[in-house]
Amino acid sequence: MKVILEDLTTLPPKRLEKRLEELARDALPCRSATVLDGNPDDGLTVALHVDSRRRGDVLDLARVVEDDATVQASCGWSLLAPSRRDSYWRLLLRVSFERPVKCEFKVRFDIRDHPSDPLRGSLPLLLAASRFVFDFDGRLDPVLPLVWIAAPAARECVLDVLSCSAT
């Protein structure tokens, strides 16, 4: 069984923008993205360093996944272009775990046009990732259980931001 994310493609443009604004407001901010591991067999694993905002369900996810490794989860990208209110790109990774526990969260990447923006520099990693590992609040430790998920197959949103921020 595959977990299905909310289908945003059926929304008219105004409602889609409003819904994405809601998702972005509630999203957990990503502070940085770094390479955790990479090899020809498994591909590139990218660690997403995320502020959990002390959400207990998110912080407890690693323990629950370690106890029951039968994970059913999905994720997908969404994109908010710069607006009058927010002058930067907002890339959203929507994540939904169905098993071993229900847990949904969004991770927000605020991408600014400034060349020294660390998240702007991590866009190629997001594009090339085979899977993501979540580092909530700087707790990433190879000895501890990790929460990981396969990267979305559809990456047009990441490519759009990468091409727009490169100009």
- The outline comes out as globular
Coarse structural class: alpha/beta
Report how far the terminal alpha carbons are from each other: 41 Å
Mean pLDDT: 84
**Topology, number of strands:** 7
How many structural domains are formed by the residues?
Answer: 1
Strand line-up of the largest beta sheet = 3-4-5-1-2-6-7
**Run of helices and strands:** HEEHHEEEHHEEH
Supply the number of helical segments.
Answer: 6
Note poorly predicted spans: none
Radius of gyration: 16 Å
- Tell me the major beta sheet: 7 strands, mixed
Percent helix range: 25-40%
Strand content: 35-45%
How would you characterize the overall build of this protein?
This protein is an alpha/beta fold and 167 residues long. The chain has one domain (13-165). Helix content is 27%, strand content 35%. It has a 7-stranded mixed β-sheet with strand order 3-4-5-1-2-6-7. Strand 4 and strand 5 (103-111) form a beta hairpin. The protein starts with 12 loop residues before the first helix and ends with a helix. The mean pLDDT is 84.
